[in-house]
Amino acid sequence: MKIVVPCKVVVDDKDIVAAADGSLDFGKAKPVISTYDLNAIEVAAQLSEADEGTSAKAVTVCNAAMGGNTKLRKDILARGIDELYMTADDACADLDAFATAAELAKLVEKAGGADLVICGDGSADLYAKQTGVQLAAKLDVPYLPEVISIEPADGKVVCKRQLADAVETVEVPLPAVVAVTPDVAQPRIAGMKQILAAGKKPQSVEAAEAPVAAAVETVAVKAPEQVDRACKVFEDADEFIAAVKAAL
Length: 248
Hints:
Largest sheet: 9 strands, mixed
Helix content: 25-40%
Low-confidence stretches: none
Number of helices: 7
Mean pLDDT: 93
Distance between the termini: 52 Å
Order of helices and strands: EEEEEHEHHEHEHEEEEHEH
Shape: globular
């Protein structure tokens, strides 16, 4: 089985600085793999390691600076991924889900196609949960979200989905796109051996040929307005409890 994992490169939110006017400074923020995609990478790696005939490749779209970060590329490959296909171009810096899905579909084709595409539950920055379903539409294959486990079968995968009040088991014919929740697998921490081996794994980093135009225009991205704190000190426990209940 051929597995492809689309993963998003985002800036580390711990390094983002919010100014008083709500504007965000990303100048010192390092590029990292989106948190939710780490779970997708891990389950793909586990499926690949369990079957010699299964491969796990990663595809990603980012700007030129992020694409030039060798540490980032090694981090992806050190997590059990066999090969990386990356489109790194400043023209892809602010793509929406629609345009990102179009670029990822091209990379899936370059990677030799996929029987199973495993996406994260959403992205660590916007968390719109749109790229996976739009990628499935581009590839013209079934889409299944909220997946907490994947079991390969003959020409299909048997997935469990976490619903609001139940766990649902669904058989999905391949090829397909599934979006996994963080409960699907705990991401591994790559050791020095895996990091060194990652540098020798095949990776393709190319500029965008003709990026698809975004369907959504982003006007601004700002931090939420800070609410002034009351800074009230309660000396009596009952008074504090009453204040909390009133606030709720």
